Amino acid sequence: MTMELLTRIQRELNLLEQQGLRRILRVADTPCAPRVQVDGKPMLAFCSNDYLGLAADARIVQALREGAGIYGAGSGASHLISGHSRAHALLEERLAHMLEPFVPSAKALYFSTGYMANLALMTALTCMDPQAEIFSEALNHASLIDGMRLARAAVKVYAHGDVAALEQLLGASKSATKVVVTDSVFSMDGDLAPLRQLLALCEKHGAWLVVDDAHGFGVLGRRGHGVLEHLDLRSDHLVYLGTLGKAAGVSGAFVAAHADVVDWMVQKARSYIYTTASSPALAHALLTSLDIIVGEEGAQRRVRVGELIQAMRAGLSGGNWNLLMSDTCIQPIVVGGNEAALDMAAALFRKGLWVPAIRPPTVPRGTARLRVTLSAAHTVDDVRQLLEALNAIQAEEDHA
Prior knowledge:
The longest helix has 21 residues. This protein is an alpha/beta fold. α8 links the parallel β6 and β7. The chain has a seven-stranded mixed β-sheet with strand order 3-9-8-7-6-4-5, with helices on both faces. A three-stranded mixed β-sheet has the order 1-2-11. It has a three-stranded antiparallel β-sheet with strand order 10-13-12. It folds into two domains: about 130 residues, Aspartate Aminotransferase, domain 1 (Alpha-Beta Complex); about 240 residues, Aspartate Aminotransferase, domain 2. The model has no long low-confidence stretch (mean pLDDT about 95). The protein is globular.
């Protein structure tokens, strides 16, 4: 019987292989940075979400050591038992202070991962009302989608960026609890959601607007406070999620919302209640990370990555590339077929460049792509090397 079960798994793995959909793990032997050692080979990486280049910053590494010296390696329990340390509390106070200009009466709640935070949000906001309805942007992240499934609320999906379609859905809804859910920066396309229009609709129809700013916090806004600062938005209807393992360079995520909403999550969010709290040392390190983000150096890093984005887009503007419209660190090049995307990623890897091929179900069928991500730790020469490699591959294909 066991062999029959394994045979079924092997058959499905082979099918994924044939479809160009089988995933593989690569092993990095060095810290997260543009120059890394991967599977024993030196590579120039354009695949991390370390947008400000803080993941291996010596000051944050030292703060992590300091935090371990103060609090030890682990928390020992869930937050509500005994695992909520002073480091967690200080981090949440700092994050609430950062978001309060945009989310009135803000309180923050720290999670081990963004995935867990989104599960918590979707379930807590809807559990009090069996007739609750969720209105979901079509390109939302998988963690939001899974949170909606776990919430067991009615879900209506509106097309990417289609404000008119959402307005129709909200206008037809009879539910007392309406929750509009969207990414801010879409992780595979790099574009921004039309948040001003979405917020206006939510205020008109009495809905929550949940904004997952995983790829905006730290990068967007004059002080790096995220997409709400970038667009100068403020409303009681906002529920904000930011991640701390991308631009912040460490680990975890947080929800910032009205204090009553956060207190409700503490009562009802199972992915918060029933898990061991993350290491206090991580929270301690994040305090240093936030100091850098909101300071002058953080501003300089945001300017630098903006210059790299412009350089890359200018360097590919003359070719026949399908470079999606994006002013963010995420610069996707749509290739189309799975095998074609894998072949291009492999060709880059042979040239010493690590750029991932993204395929269904992460993106729609027929839109497999190279997902280039830029960091303030990259240099103009790094981007030039990538452009030269891409153009050389394109020239080889044109002459094939």
